[in-house]
UniProtKB/TrEMBL annotation:
InterPro entries: MFS_dom, MFS_trans_sf. Its main location: membrane. Residues 1-345 form the Major facilitator superfamily (MFS) profile domain. This is Major facilitator superfamily transporter. SUPFAM superfamilies: MFS general substrate transporter. GO terms for cellular component: membrane. Keywords: Membrane, Transmembrane, Transmembrane helix, Transport. It is found in: Membrane. PANTHER family: MAJOR FACILITATOR SUPERFAMILY DOMAIN-CONTAINING PROTEIN 10 (PTHR23504), TRANSPORTER, PUTATIVE (AFU_ORTHOLOGUE AFUA_8G04150)-RELATED (PTHR23504:SF2). It comes from the Eukaryota. The chain crosses the membrane at residues 44-63, 128-148, 186-210, 222-242, 248-274, 286-309, 321-340. GO terms for molecular function: transmembrane transporter activity. The keyword Membrane applies.
Length: 374
């Protein structure tokens, strides 16, 4: 999923940067006083809505049910179903084996089953509100919050006008890390191109870097490393205000590369760990739904909080306040990640599933044998 997301981050900024304010980009096609002249951001939204409609149609016709108990009959193997005619059917293989087991212990049934084996297949109760799952969902929520603030603040910071130095500001000292007036003052087209390149970087990280480091370090160790190092990605961005004009784009792409290495690796790692912590495949829907709902809540509050911090900081020549706020949340995530304890799936099934099956009783029968000599 992150791989496909990276492809979308290439196409999305291209659509926004190309079709926003179409009269300015294509004056002959979109004249003055036209619909798209009065609503300069309508065209890219219509394109996105059309793509969303296509995705709904494709999902309806192409997606298959994955729940074990809800799969349609046509997707199950042919030998899953048996009838009274099944024993009379002859196979086509060289051994001429019958279609069903016709031994004595199976007499009278089409498909004989052992009672104890059937009892083991009874659905066991499970608990999804376990400490490993809750810790991972908390980590996902923290990551989702500061990752959303980054995506929200980045184009604003790029397009915000550069502010002239204010010597009267209490923060206007060479040694003050909080003095960061305004943004970079880039154009809408330049921001769209930067965001498209950002998608290419994310695609490279997902396709090349992530498989390599996951194989070398392991999923859990990689989770700890990228979570602890994540605050660096937010502390670097405000320093772009002091980068020379000739090196600005190089500095931007360097910051984007560091951030993509952290976020593109952390997101699939969290999804893998949540799946491994799920006690049974039948609980994946509930666990994923709970994780997605919790993450969506944090994703909802991230933009207004980040926007308020950016506005408040800009009034006091400290636009970096929003970035530092995100860094603080990332530090909280770096501390919280150590509360996630790694457990094997078998151990979690034993502790959290809480099976109510009785132990099989063993009986020993002693038979006395008498000799004729006695």
């Amino acid at each position: 999923m992150p791989f496909v997301w990276s492809i979308g981050t290439i196409i999305g900024p291209f659509i926004g940067g190309t079709f926003a304010d179409p009269h300015d980009a294509f004056p002959n096609v979109f004249p003055v006083d036209g619909l798209f002249y009065r609503y300069p951001y309508l065209l890219p939204n219509l394109v996105c809505a059309a793509l969303l409609f296509v995705s709904i149609i494709l999902g309806y016709f192409l997606l298959e049910e994955t729940h074990p108990d809800m799969q349609p009959r046509v997707f199950l193997p042919d030998d899953t179903f048996a009838s009274e005619e099944t024993p009379l059917l002859e196979t086509m293989d060289a051994m001429k084996r019958p279609a069903v087991d016709m031994r004595d212990d199976n007499y009278g049934t089409v498909r004989g089953r052992d009672a104890q084996a059937a009892a083991k297949k009874v659905d066991q109760p499970y608990n999804i509100y376990t400490k490993p799952i809750m810790s991972l969902i908390a980590a996902l929520c923290i990551f989702t919050y500061h990752s959303m603030t980054y995506d929200h603040l980045l184009p604003i910071f790029f397009e915000d006008d550069r502010a002239t130095a204010n010597p009267m500001s209490i923060l206007a000292t060479p040694s003050s890390p909080f003095y960061s007036p305004g943004g970079l003052g880039l154009s809408l087209r330049a921001v769209g191109m930067i965001m498209a390149v950002n998608g290419v970087i994310a695609l490279f990280v997902q396709a090349v870097i992530f498989p390599f480091v996951a194989e070398k370090l392991g999923i859990f160790r990689l989770f700890i490393i990228v979570t602890v190092l994540h605050p660096i990605a937010y502390l670097m961005v405000p320093s772009l205000l002091f980068v020379p004009e000739s090196m600005l784009y190089a500095g931007i792409y360097f910051c984007l590369a560091i951030r993509n290495i952290m976020s593109i690796i952390l997101y699939p790692v969290l999804l893998i760990l949540i799946k491994e912590a799920t006690p049974t495949p039948k609980a994946l829907g509930k666990v994923n739904g709970l994780a997605a709902s919790a993450a969506a809540g944090f994703r909802m509050i991230a933009p207004p909080v980040a926007g308020w911090l950016y506005t408040t900081g800009s009034k006091v020549d400290c636009a970096a306040l929003a970035w530092y706020g995100s860094a603080v949340v990332a530090v909280i995530g770096a501390i919280q990640c150590f509360s996630v304890k790694r457990q094997r799936k078998e151990e979690m099934c034993e502790e959290d599933a809480q099976p109510i099956l009785r132990k099989k009783e063993s009986r020993v029968t002693v038979t006395e044998v008498f000799s004729d000599a006695e």
